[in-house]
Amino acid sequence: MTPRPFKPKEELLSILKETRRLLENMKPSRSISNSKLEQLEPIRRQALVCRACRLAKERTHVVFGEGSLDAKLVFIGEGPGRSEDLQGRPFVGQAGILLTKIIQAMGLQREQVYIANVVKCRPPMNRPPEPDEVAACSGYLKAQLSTIQPKIICALGRTAATALLGSQAPMNQLRGKTFQWEGIPLIVTFHPAYLLRNPAAKPQVWEDMQRILPLLKP
Ligand code: SF4
Question: Where are the domains of the chain?
Fold first, then answer.
């Protein structure tokens, strides 16, 4: 076989072409969470200035929700309390500390899950949100869940369960079952604020979390 004549210019061009191809392949592909962020960010911005219901009047901050947009597990509570309203973040008061401990006991970090509420503005005196307020805010919650597409949704308390399932059933009929929200499994457990008032219910919540864990496996 006759050796190929050495042509420095062509060799250089070929090396440059190959380097370019390798660099192209090294470019990170657009992550799932980036496209989810693009989808959810305009909705979050819309919520931050929303005045669609009477809860807008007394709020300090809109508490949209936080966490990983690639979360396998999403917790949905009732509405922001005082600390949440002041900080603009969900579950940061005493109930939030307890929720974080529950998440950690499941072997997860808070940053790995997504946490939001049925209504994004604090109801006065922490009263439960009225049905018309839940309805006015439902588009934001639906957008969050539809965008994140978690493997499982955990409804914290009856208000969240009612908002997501449309069921008026009491907690003793909601716990221990697996429901579906638009094809996503949904489990109902007690709200952490209830646990602060009724610590004896902690083992029941742990039972509910034990039912969630196998559903998170790949
Ligand atoms: S609670 Fe929801 S619907 Fe009502 S003002 Fe706040 S963001 Fe808008």
Answer: 34-216
- List the residue whose alpha carbon is closest to atom 3 of ligand 1: 137
Please enumerate, as own/partner, the contacts of 88-91 that have beta carbons within 8 Å and a separation of 24 or more.
88/60, 88/61, 88/62, 88/63, 89/63, 90/63, 90/65, 90/66, 90/115, 90/116, 90/117, 91/115, 91/192
Q: Which mutation among 50, 61, 84 tests ligand 1's pocket best, with the greatest number of atoms within 8 A of CB?
A: 50
| Residue 56 Cα: closest atom of ligand 1 | 5
Domain 34-216 belongs to what topology?
Answer: Uracil-DNA Glycosylase, subunit E (3.40.470)
d(CA 32, CA 37): 9
Per-residue tens of pLDDT for the chain, all 218 residues? 455 566 666 666 665 565 455 444 444 445 678 999 999 999 999 999 999 999 999 999 999 999 999 999 999 999 999 999 999 999 999 999 999 999 999 999 999 999 999 999 999 999 999 999 999 999 999 999 999 999 999 999 999 999 999 999 999 999 999 999 999 999 999 999 999 999 999 999 999 999 999 999 88
Binding pocket residue ranges, ligand 1, CB within 6 Å: 47, 50-53, 55-56, 62, 119-121, 133, 136-137
Ligand 1, atom 6, lies closest to the CA of 121
Grouping H, G, I as helix, E, B as strand and the rest as coil, residue 74 is: strand
**Which atom of ligand 1 is least distant from the CA of 133?**
4
Predicted structure pTM score? 0.86
